[in-house]
Amino acid sequence: MNLKRIDARLSVSPQIEVADVATLKAAGYRAIICNRPDGEGADQPTFQEIETAARAAGLETRYLPVKSGMVLDEDAKSFGAAMEELPGPVLAYCRTGTRSATLWSLNEAAHHKPVPDILAATKAAGYDMNGVARRIANGGRTPTDQADASFGVVIVGAGAAGIAVAASLKARKHDLDIAVIDPADIHYYQPGWTMVGGGIFSPEDTARTMGSLIPSGVTWIKAAVAAFEPKDNAVILDGCRVVKYDRLVVCPGLKLDWDRIEGLEETLGRNGVTSNYRYDLAPYTWQLVQSLKKGRALFTQPPMPIKCAGAPQKAMYLSADHWFREGVLKDIDIHFCNAGGVLFGVKDYVPALMEYVKKYDATLDFFHNLVAVDGPARTATFAVSPPDGTPSRVTMEFDMMHVCPPQTAPDFIRVSPLADAAGWIDVDQATLRHKSFDNIWSLGDVMNAPNAKTAAAARKQAPTVAENVVADIEGRSPLAQYDGYGSCPLTVERGKIVLAEFGYGGTLLPSFPRWILDGRKPTRLAWFLKERMLPPIYWKAMLRGKEWLAKPKPLSATPAE
Fold this sequence. Notes:
This is TIGR01244 family phosphatase. The protein is an alpha/beta fold and 561 residues long.
């Protein structure tokens, strides 16, 4: 916990954990304000968890969530009201503390505190509020005529896509001036969380410090993005700082929309409700699987798009395989509740998957979309919308439930001029260049090309974007195209995987000849790739600009502008 004192009544900090509440109590704090919306990060406890611990410790709490980079004057007013109402001293937190410091600064300015005094207090705490000062002086709008920093290429997001494209750019043009913007301290190998939930990997195997992965020579700006001003070639950060660019690459990943399901946030991590989509919950999945000897297990999948469309059923297969090996499968009623109408979107892989559905005697409940959870009662409610029937609601009891949350583009993307009508970055699906802004590209889960949202897709997209950005810098037309490649290693049992590899339109795009590995069948070789080879390929090749089996394909035709 990194507490930073602003004044006698307020300190701010990055995200706190449940265990930190007792420390805050011992340090004399009497209230906690949460300025971070639930579900913003994969390793983030919910406010309800913090509030429960605070209440037990005798601390008051207030939930004032502010979307990343979107601090409004009304939010600052609410923050000020909370500071007046709550007993002090108060600890306010968000992802990095910047939003909380910004709220304090704007509220103090509204009450006529001199701006130099605001800047001095926040600077002493380690926060640069010069951008906030410019916003105050500009009548509440951040001006973009001057920059706090400028770079040749700015990359928004340091997940799999962001670091991979930074490394691929550096490999092609070593002297390129690149900045990566991301507020997270930890980078996660998210494909490994399925294996954590199956008792194969430990959580620690899937995490590295962000600083250890940013490519040498690339500037890391540890901040959240508030807004894009593409006509001014500017990105506005938390704290109202302005970063300008010659070229921009946007790849911040997806938002997990937990709160779209009524009651879910209150019961995550307890009452038998878990999800491999959160770092701290994947171990709970394995705990539940080991302890369940009889009863009903539900596995849910929301409407598309989601990260790795196979992940919800991977959790089902690995759990069922454990129960099969333990001899208790006959006493467990497994349901796969899918909002869609097919088991898997590429039909060539369905026959092999159906063999395992039969083996585990799982019931496939199609067109079942999870809408509510009552954790203490152990019930889940689904909206059932068959295409040829009457919509209805069905409530099912459970002893264990693995939930895949609904997923959307992050808020700052959806409201930006870069987004299409559905909220995704609007790109040409071949070159991954923005359709309206020639000096902007996007890759990873946030763009609107009709491909599977997987880390394997980002592995192929990064070299394509790097090749095309460098071509643009050198005054040439786009050179490379992305064919929609995505991969989903479907862990149908411990030791065997159906390795789905496909591109746009469901075209099969196998990496190996079928006599070596036929991805349509469960094989031990595919498991070996998933368990032993893919993690080091991710850490030591993809994130370092080494494009093994990922070289960009030449552009075969001029893409539509």
